[in-house]
Amino acid sequence: MGKGKRYEEPKLNFKKVLAFIIAIIVVIMFVFIIQGILTKEKAQTKISSKDYAAIFQNNKWGVIDSSGNIIIDPSYSEMIIVPSSKNDVFLCVYDVDYETGTYKTKALNSKNEEIFTQYEQIEAISNHDINNNIWYEENVLKVEKDGKKGLINLSGKELASCQYEEITAIEGIENALKVKKDGKYGVLNNEGKQVIAPEYYDISNLGKDDKSGFIVKGENEKYGIVDYSNQIILEAKYDGIEKVYGNDTYVVKQEGKELLVKKGGQELLTEGFDEIKAILKNADSGIIYTAGGKYGVMNLLGEVIIEPSYEDLKEAKTGILIAKQDGKYGIIDIQKNSKMEANYTAISYNEKADIYLAEKEDYNNDIIDNAFNVRQTGLLIDLNDEKGYIELKQGEEYKYYNFKFEEKKVTDIQTSNTLFKSKKDGKYGFVDKNGKVVVDYQYDDVTDQNSYGYAGIKKDGKWGSIDEKGKVVQEPTYDLEDYLKIDFIGRWHLGKDINMNYYNKL
């Protein structure tokens, strides 16, 4: 038998072992680093998920977060502007000289640190609609350097260099900023991109959004229309442009008279009316006009479809009109057939829901479907386009319906809420999503839980607040009878002027 070879254990390669150990250490460090980054990102996300609001206390202004914690002490004489509730950018005005109208501005973050210090002035760009509801242009600030104005976003990134004499919002229009350069006007969007070159002597909105086009004034003191792409719709040759348009037709003024013209300037209607009030949605239908102070309908051939005999006419949807007669509103079609008798103090149409809201003399509303059937009646509390529901107070109960008029539970509507108002034996309390009583029935009135988790509670004529767990944060001690809306962040309640969107506490 031959002699076998003995099995020998291989010798360790210390260089390889060392390299292997180092590799493991590097991997472990990498894991910890990634974990740290993710933790930091989570923390940053948590911080950035806070909401912020201005506060007013003892005639001074500051800022709180959505938990009611004071972020900026109320120490400023002028209101602090919070351009976006989701961003910790707060704009402060100070050293105001009311005689000369001069002032200074600065921006602070949630650590009370001054930011964007390279600019001489920093301001939010305010805007408002026809109801005077105020908002600030989204994610954009106006800044000034060396006497010229530009744009940055809320992170400080430059959107438009400081080269303009003026930057203002175009009233009622989002994402359209009127700029002045070398004495002439143009339009930028909120990203700082030029929409219309600054080459006009004035510019204003035609409709309710930036896509509708703009009324421009030429050097000849005449008016025309350009679209969002800066293409000429109507030459600047008219004495005026009315904000009435549709189906590529426009209402212009020439020598004191209104005309209906087509894109390019072709005249369609020139007589038979005092004023053109609206252009109907159907391209072939025509116009709503007035003659002798009464409203009627005329087609594009100048033929009268509905005699001017109404006190008001508004088109709800194609072929359907809301009509006022003898001080009351009803609904008719384009052939003047009655769809709803004129028994209401007001009627409006919601296009998204495809329903009519008809107000009665007792302030209750009939909710009418697109076949003109009254589907529900009650005091209208809310109609939410985004979530697709209607809230009505019917008797002593609050009821919820979707746009198909199917009744819904409040838990189906307010899905993020932890508490839901409930009434028993004439008193209000709160229950959870399973109907379990969380807050006893002891209050005279309450509000729904808001997006911050707080709800208002009323007792003996005074208001206070509870948190998302039903714990009393503010005992009912505030007299808020003159306030239009009851809303709380912790112990802070919404101010009287809800357009200013600030909170205070007594």
Kindly describe this structure.
The chain is mainly β and 506 residues long. The chain has a domain at 417-506. The protein has two helices and 47 strands. The strands form eleven sheets. Strands 31-32-33-34-35-36-37 form a seven-stranded antiparallel beta sheet. β17 (223-226) and β18 form a beta hairpin. It starts with 13 loop residues before the first helix and ends with a strand.
Give the structure's gist in a few sentences.
This protein is mostly beta strands and 506 residues long. The chain has a domain at 417-506. The strands form 11 sheets. Strands 31-32-33-34-35-36-37 form a 7-stranded antiparallel beta sheet. A 6-stranded mixed beta sheet has the order 3-2-1-47-46-45, with no helix packed on it. Strands 7-8-9-10 form a 4-stranded antiparallel beta sheet, with no helix packed on it.
List the helices and strands and how they pair.
Layout (H helix, E strand, L loop, with lengths): L13 H35 L3 E6 L2 E6 L4 E7 L13 E8 L4 E7 L5 E2 L5 E8 L5 E12 L2 E5 L5 E7 L1 E4 L7 E5 L2 E5 L5 E7 L1 E4 L8 E4 L5 E4 L5 E7 L1 E7 L2 E6 L2 E6 L4 E3 L5 E5 L7 E5 L2 E5 L5 E7 L1 E6 L2 E6 L2 E6 L4 E7 L1 E5 L4 E5 L5 E4 L5 E11 L4 E6 L2 E6 L4 E2 L1 H4 L6 E5 L2 E5 L5 E7 L1 E2 L8 E5 L2 E5 L5 E7 L9 E2 L2 E3 L7 E3 L2
Parallel strand pairs: 1-47
Antiparallel strand pairs: 1-2, 2-3, 4-5, 5-6, 7-8, 8-9, 9-10, 11-12, 12-13, 13-14, 15-16, 16-17, 17-18, 19-20, 20-21, 21-22, 23-24, 24-25, 25-26, 27-28, 28-29, 29-30, 31-32, 32-33, 33-34, 34-35, 35-36, 36-37, 38-39, 39-40, 41-42, 42-43, 43-44, 45-46, 46-47
